[in-house]
Write a structure and sequence with these properties.
The complex is a heterodimer of chains A (381) and B (386).
Chain A: H1 4-13, H2 15-46, E1 53-58, H3 70-75, E2 80-88, E3 91-93, E4 101-105, H4 107-113, E5 118-119, H5 122-130, E6 134-138, H6 139-145, E7 152-157, E8 162-174, E9 183-187, H7 188-194, E10 203-208, H8 214-224, E11 232-236, H9 237-246, H10 251-280, H11 282-290, H12 295-328, H13 343-370, H14 373-377
Parallel strand pairs in A: 4-9, 6-8
Antiparallel strand pairs in A: 1-10, 1-11, 2-4, 2-10, 3-7, 5-8, 6-9, 7-8
Helix pairs in contact in A: 1-12, 2-9, 2-10, 2-12, 2-13, 10-13, 12-13
Chain B: H1 5-14, H2 16-48, E1 55-60, E2 71-72, H3 73-80, E3 95-105, E4 114-121, H4 125-128, E5 133-137, E6 146-150, E7 165-168, E8 171-180, E9 189-193, H5 194-200, E10 205-206, E11 208-212, H6 219-228, E12 234-238, H7 239-245, H8 248-283, H9 285-293, H10 298-324, E13 331-336, E14 341-346, H11 351-377, H12 381-385
Parallel strand pairs in B: 4-9, 6-8
Antiparallel strand pairs in B: 1-11, 1-12, 2-10, 3-4, 3-11, 5-8, 6-9, 7-8, 13-14
Helix pairs in contact in B: 1-10, 2-7, 2-8, 2-10, 2-11, 8-11, 10-11
Classes of the chains: A alpha+beta (381), B alpha+beta (386).
Chain lengths: 381, 386
């Protein structure tokens, strides 16, 4: 710390350069944190489903409905404690881009099934269950459109055609942030009543008494319906969710590749300006050596300067990303619920900053240490 | 008077490491920029090419995707009988009532199951969709349990070689051939005969009726006739526009990513350019003073340094283009959320995208070079020449 003033003086000599270099390091790490958080958030939402719940869907594809009669047969499968069902209601609010997940669910059994994941005040729950045209929405969705509880909202159906008006009777909070708060739940009866000839449950959710029996239950369910009108495919809710995530394709590869390019580009920028600084100070290095600073001292001084820039930039970029996403509640329109910069990402970002300090400081630092006083001072006028 | 560009080029060459690093920084930004645009463009083109302008798709009213549509047999017959529909060589209308649904099929190499579009088409489909070419094997035969597999999706599915049997809907289906369709998203689909597929899929409904019009200009007429027909609850869509619109969700995401990521990267690179150019100005104070003394106007000095910055980043931009070019044609896949199914498509680098990359590079250079150049132009001669 004895040389703090010297390092500080060097940093403030070219204030503009120091600020710009620090800012570009900050930008890079901000971007790095953002991109990596997309990957970690996707992973977290792949793991959000419970291992003790199972999803029964059509073996052909999720878009095929399952007969209503399956409900009783599923409830009778040993190991199944509770059954509920839901449909994907593909609608939008006012414009196609205002699109969010809407589940048409058997309200009471659905809320019971997810009672540990959704926080919904009991009066709101009762109000929702009492009224067929009611809906509940996630708090985040409520805020996104500036809705109020008690308000009517009209969705345009795409799978279930026509206009659908629902009264918001409640707003739920997700216990696990990776559980989407950008969703709406409506009553299954409503979509059934309008299209009784072709609507039946989209998928069933089973609550298991014992998660370890999941494979046995899955096999029992699928063999029960093997020769029925709609053969089924049963898996844990977690597997179901992670399947949706893999449908995005190689997102993590894309993000990581871009992340690498960003980090490398900034490394160049930072290393370049460190070298510029070092080159301009050849004389000073000579003077310092002449007055008795050792090679180690000079090596340390240059490294300290590089570290200050890299770590300062890291603190700004990583801290900025963390603070920005936490304060704005960014969720990419509900695609990335619970978007958050994780501790692991921050640590990794810090690691990159340290690496950056080492690589950008090393060349000028070694050069400064090796430079002989005589040679350096030769240029002094 | 203008300062010759050679001066700038030589100046850059005198500081090879610093110049190269700045250019490389710009190159990386431009490379990422081009790659992301190529991704978005490839996806869009796969869907745009899927449609042709003189084809019309008829869907249930309000349905925004084939998945959400349903058209009864009787209605399909009314639609196919419209006088505006072109006739084939055999005199039958060029109309293909189609069943459309994603099914989950086993991925190749023991990978995850993939949701793949299964399309049941009529015998006229190959005349309606003119860009379908059989690249291996033959077409499926009518009345048989046979399918043909799109060339883009075939490598990603198990048992999809010609002669193999794919299982879905509780039966096996012989893969009679593979087909291509000029890079469109049809290449990510499996096709069979509509009458064979309908019973195993979604009951007594078609999802869409594809028509070939006698002339492109008849679209409005057809649209109006269908609208007015009290027996039908359907909308007509121009095929090209319809498929382009199906890429909307993903395109929005990809474009946002491209702007967000490259925007931030660009700021970093501009800062780098600013640093380099300031250092260049600082180390050439003497030179600049000489130029001023020789009678070059400050305006020329400003222009000269701007040109230098622009040149440096243009070189970087060119390098970025070269770095990004090999990704052209690289096949990747993602899910088209409108049809809930896998679409395989290739990165598509076009001259226009390369041009955008270069313009982007020059803009970065000029932005980064402006303040240092202004500083150079405003140098007080007397002080600078000391």
């Amino acid at each position: 710390m004895r040389y703090f003033h010297l390092v500080w003086a060097n940093l403030t000599r070219h204030k503009r350069r120091t600020v710009l270099t620090t800012a570009s390091v900050a930008m890079a790490l901000f971007l790095f944190a953002s991109l990596r958080s997309v990957v970690t958030t996707l992973r977290a939402s792949a793991a959000v489903g419970s291992e003790s719940r199972m999803i029964v869907q059509s073996a052909k594809a999720i878009v095929f409905f399952l007969p209503m009669s399956y409900r009783e047969r599923l409830a009778a499968v040993p190991g199944v404690e509770a059954v509920t069902w839901a449909n994907w209601f593909g609608g939008f609010y006012q414009e196609p881009r205002n699109f969010f997940a809407t589940f048409a669910a058997d309200a009471e059994s659905y809320l019971d099934m997810y009672s540990s994941d959704l926080e919904l005040p009991s009066d709101q729950r009762e109000a929702f269950l009492r009224e067929r045209s009611a809906c509940i929405v996630g708090q985040h969705l409520l805020d996104r459109f500036g809705w109020r509880v008690g308000q009517n909202v009209t969705l345009q159906g795409t799978i279930f055609p026509g206009d659908w008006t629902f009264t918001i009777r409640g707003a739920y909070h997700a216990v696990d942030p990776a559980f989407s708060e950008d969703a709406m739940v409506i009553h299954y009866e409503v979509i059934y009543e309008r299209n009784p000839q072709w609507v039946s449950p989209g998928w069933y959710v089973l609550q298991l008494a014992d998660p370890s029996r999941a494979p046995a239950v899955a096999a029992a369910v699928d063999s029960t319906f093997e020769n029925s009108v709609e053969p089924t495919r049963t898996g844990t809710e977690r597997a179901f969710n992670s399947n949706f995530i893999t449908m995005w394709g190689n997102v993590s590869f894309l993000m990581n590749t871009i992340g690498m390019a960003v980090v490398f580009a900034i490394l160049l920028v930072a290393a370049n300006s460190m070298m510029l600084s070092a080159r301009e100070r050849t004389n000073e290095v000579g003077v310092l050596k002449a007055v008795g600073f050792t090679d180690t001292h000079l090596f340390g001084l240059v490294m300290a300067e590089a570290s200050a820039i890299a770590l300062g930039g890291a603190a700004l970029g990583l801290g900025g990303a963390k603070a920005l996403y936490a304060s704005t509640g960014f969720s990419a329109m509900g695609f990335l619920p619970g978007f958050d910069v994780s501790g692991g990402t921050l640590a990794l970002g810090l690691g990159i900053a340290v690496l950056l300090a080492l690589t950008s400081g090393l060349v000028p630092a070694v050069a400064a240490a090796r430079l002989s006083a005589v040679q350096a001072l030769r240029h002094v006028e | 008077m203008r300062i010759p560009i050679v001066y700038n080029v030589r100046s850059l060459l005198r500081r090879p490491v610093s110049s190269a690093m700045t250019a490389l920084g710009v190159a990386l930004v431009v490379g990422v920029f081009i790659a992301m645009l190529a991704l978005a463009n490839g996806f869009r083109m796969a869907l745009v090419r899927t449609g042709s302008r003189d084809n019309v798709l008829v869907l249930r009213r309000g349905a925004d995707s084939e998945l959400a549509s349903g058209i009864g047999r009787d209605n399909a017959a009314i639609i196919a009988a419209l006088p505006q529909v072109a006739a084939g060589a055999d005199g039958r209308p060029l109309a293909s009532p189609e069943v459309f649904t994603p099914v989950s099929l086993a991925g190749s190499g023991g990978g995850d199951d993939r949701l793949v579009v299964l399309r049941g088409v009529s015998a006229q489909a190959f005349e309606v969709r003119r860009n379908i070419r059989i690249v291996a094997g033959r077409r499926f035969q009518q009345g048989r349990d046979e399918v043909i597999v799109g060339s883009a999706i075939a490598p990603r599915l198990a048992n999809s070689a010609v002669g193999d049997t794919i299982r879905f809907g509780g039966r096996g289906w012989l893969v009679a051939g593979h087909f291509s369709s000029a890079g469109s998203s049809f290449e990510s689909e499996v096709w069979g005969e509509n009458e064979q597929l309908m019973p195993v899929l979604r009951g007594q409904f078609f999802q869409v009726v594809a028509l070939r019009l006698r002339s492109e200009a008849m679209y409005d007429e057809v649209s109006r006739v269908l609208e007015d027909d009290r027996r039908l609850q359907v909308d007509a869509h121009r095929e090209s526009e319809f498929y382009a619109s199906q890429s909307r969700i993903l395109r929005v995401i990809l474009n946002f990513m491209a702007v967000f990521v490259t925007g931030i990267m660009a700021i970093g690179a501009v800062f780098g350019a600013v640093n380099t150019m300031y250092a260049a100005v600082a180390s050439r104070t003497g030179e600049i003073a000489v130029l001023l003394t020789l009678g070059f106007k400050p305006r020329s000095i400003l222009a000269s340094f701007l040109v230098e910055a622009a040149f440096l980043s243009l070189v970087g931009g060119l390098a970025g283009c070269l770095v990004a070019l090999p990704i052209n044609g690289l096949v990747t896949s993602t899910t088209n959320w409108s049809s809930f199914s896998t679409v395989a498509f290739s990165f598509l680098v076009t001259p226009r995208i390369l041009l955008y990359g270069l313009v982007f590079a020059v803009v970065m250079g000029v932005l980064g070079g402006y303040f240092p150049a202004r500083r150079a132009a405003r140098l007080p001669v007397v002080e600078a020449i000391r």
